[in-house]
């Protein structure tokens, strides 16, 4: 009896996600006039070096990035086996509702994500994002110079961005 390890719903460790084939447009938006080329103007990243996106990556890096997702899938699969199909569906719907409605502008202190932490069973743990938020989190993006030069968003700008006005 041969079982496929990749499709095992009770997998504890994320699978390998590094690819052996490369596509130029897989790392960003392609240019409308030349569909095979990376659009450097719209991406705002500058010239794309595909080798820097692929090489010099540790094999465990993709597993660490997918750790929370794999653990969540494992937990939902266990709930499905114990309580039936309705329980994981209900939990995912509740999580989606909380993520869509839990919003407080940064001027008012930002959202605490307490409801999300309770639904993900993380209310008793302290993560990096719980301590370092705000301006520090903005400067940890890929373009640190642009993030530090940018003025903080005011209340009205943040509300317009949130609701797509």
Automatic annotation (TrEMBL):
Q: Which domain of life is it from?
A: Eukaryota
Disordered: annotated span: 29-50
Q: Pfam families, alphabetically?
A: UMP1
Q: Which GO terms describe its biological process?
A: proteasome assembly
User: What are the record's GO terms for cellular component?
Assistant: cytoplasm; nucleus
InterPro entries registered for this protein in UniProt: Ump1
Question: What is stated as this protein's family in its record?
Answer: Belongs to the POMP/UMP1 family.
Question: What is the name of this protein?
Answer: Proteasome maturation factor UMP1
Which source organism?
A: Pichia angusta (Yeast)
